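$ run holo --ligand "nicotinamide-adenine-dinucleotide" --emit tokens
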Amino acid sequence: MTGGVGFIGSNFINYLLEKESRVHVVNLDLLIYPGGVQNIASLNRQPRHTFAQGDICDSALVGELLKKYAVDTIVNFAAETHVDRSIVEPDQFIKTNVHGTFTLLEEARKYWALAGMRGRFHQISTDEVFGSLNPEEAACTERTPYHPRSPYSASKASADLLAQAYFHTYQMAITLSHCSNNYGPRQFPEKLIPLTIANLLQAQEIPIYGDGLQIRDWLYVEDHCEALYLILRDGQAGESYNIGGENQMTNLELVERICARFDQLRPALKPYRQLIKRVSDRPGHDRRYALAIAKVRQIFQWTPKHGLESGLDKTIQWYLDHLDWLDSILTDAAYLQWVKQNYEFRGQG
Ligand code: NAD
Ligand code: DAU
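-- output --
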């Protein structure tokens, strides 16, 4: 597994090790974010987890790990993931997301050929590769053509194409999944939901980009983990699968809902929604993402178990229970530098 210290990867490792008693996870992660060290400490409490710090672009290291642990399955979560960062600093997105995925595919191809093993490679992709939809357009299926519009989504689309090329050219057992916006424990507070929670806790303004009417489809991370598990267990090589929450809403409505929950949980003198502040828009901001999930529903009988209310409650509670984790990030010098840089880029004070 790669990127297993991050938000979705760490949740997936916990899910997988609880489900499967004979799986051992080797977790290759570069630890690019503060908060990672605490995530590893909790993952290391799992007996069948081995952490390796390193870069997925490092072919020697990847080759060595594959051989040392006789790896038979790769799930590639590792990526640069924040769209705003990809606009300010696209270079690292191309390195990690494109060259990193290529390195993993190539090292896996060589190692599995040498070991005479038919390994499995699962690429974690995103709904963003399909591009932006209008509110009235039908949701994207697995056959919708790619139309990425940010450096982040273009780099993820490139990685997908490489993975598909390795299936067709080398007959490697490749699967792919496109997921909508996740939320839940351990998401880094640069993303909308944890950023809103962190700012509410500090009585700071919540920046809403543009008119706030952009639509995202929200999925609780545990539901994503369950779908991934089913795809890894029963998915077909060469196939891709959409995993969506069927939970579309505007950013403004989502943030207002979190504010309303805070009004109940931690009543203050004024309603928390007064902290919402419209700020300049994200350049090239995609208006709407939406995924059709008929395929996973039909093949795996999978459907999201969490509605937004229960998912948000669990998420908010996790952050309230882990204020030390949040604090260690919010006071980190690199994080503060990013916040400053992002604000300057967007012309905010
Ligand atoms: P995250 O940013 O929380 O985690 C990414 C992890 O990758 C981090 O632990 C980081 O240290 C690691 N990493 C980054 N560069 C690396 C490198 N060069 N070598 C090794 N490790 C490296 O992201 P996430 O939200 O958990 O996303 C995981 C995957 O899911 C990504 O591929 C992302 O594109 C995809 N995805 C995310 C969402 C979402 O809503 N969060 C939705 C759809 C798809
Ligand atoms: O759709 C899946 C994608 O979801 C993943 O592939 C990405 O890795 C993940 O970061 C996420 O991308 P988004 O750009 O949709 O997520 P983000 O949380 O950054 O923003 C969600 C929406 O909220 C988006 O329309 C931008 C807006 N936003 C975001 C932030 C951080 C704001 O209005 N204000 C903010 O401060």
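-- notes --
The longest strand covers residues 120-126.
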